[in-house]
Amino acid sequence: MGKVRRNKSYRVHQPAAQAKKPDADAEGSDAGEPETPEAHLSRGQRKRQKRRDAFLKKMGMVQRTVAEKEKAAKKTTDGMFGDLEELQKSLFSAEVAPVEAEVAPKTVSKMTGKQKKRMAMQELGHLKAVQTHPAFQSNPFAAIQMHLQNTVVRENEAKK
Length: 160
Fold this sequence. Notes:
The chain is mostly helical.
């Protein structure tokens, strides 16, 4: 006995939609409106249209994000009032420039892991010293208040 083979089965498509025959009443209402263009497209054309629409949607998002990035870059270079040049000129005149020159620019440096670890060890040492101090053990709030009066208030007076 030989191998049993199956008969090929072909895909069965849905029957085509029945075309509407215009009635006398319906002619008056639909006469001015054209039918939708998708109704006349083949399956392949619909697929291509869908891909094209998806691509255009994606490109629209890309263009939007590029425009937002450009706007953000312009805002960082020109400042908040970069678009309002006249207002910027009136607000940021030459009188403000010397004040900015007096303030020294702060250097922002990030701490390395080793530096963070060293600082944490120092802070733990300070914490243990504070907790073992007799004034802190007897009245913690009074000790903290005294510390703030001795350090923070003096620093503020020295700055003035």
